[in-house]
Amino acid sequence: MAPRQRQRSTLEDRLASPVTHWAYRLAGSVLCAFGVLIAVGLINVLWDAFTDTAVKPLDPVLPLVLAPIGAFCLEIGSRLVLGRRNRHGSLMSPRSWRVLGVVFAVVTVWLAWSVTLAGRFADLDVGLMGALLTSFCFGFASYLDRRSRPPAP
Fold first, then answer.
1. Nearest to residue 147, comparing CAs of 124, 139, 110?
2. Which residue in 6, 20, 90, 135 has a CA-CA distance of 20 to 30 Å to 119?
3. From CA 104, how far away is CA 65, in angstroms rounded?
4. What is the pLDDT of residue 41?
C-alpha cells in the first residue's frame, strides 16, 4: 500500500484562515494608526512653520519624507484591514513599490550627505542599508511588472 501523501495547502488557503485574517486586520489597524499619527504630526509641523510659531526652522526634507511614509502606512493599512486584494498579487502595485524606493533613495542620499558633512564615516553603513532597501523596492516592482505582462507569442 502506497503511503498517503499529505495535501499541501496553497498560500491563499493559509491566508484565508481566521487567525491570519485577524492578524492582518490587527497589523493593518496599527499601520493605519501610524499613518494618521504621521499625518497629524506633519500638519502640526507645517502649521507651526507657516504661522511662525515654530521653535526652530523646519528642515525642508522632513515633509518630503514624512508625507509618502504616511501615505504608505495608510494605503497598506487600509488594504490589510479591508482585505482588499491586488491584481498583482502584492500589497502594493509596482508604481507604489517604485515610490517607496524613491523615498528610501531620498532618505539614503540625505543621510549619507549629512554623515559625510559631519565627518562620521563609520555611520555610512546606514546608507548601505538604505541602498539595499531601494534596490529591493525597484527590483520587486520590475518583478511584478514582468509577472503581470501576458506571455510573448
1. 139
2. 135
3. 9
4. 87
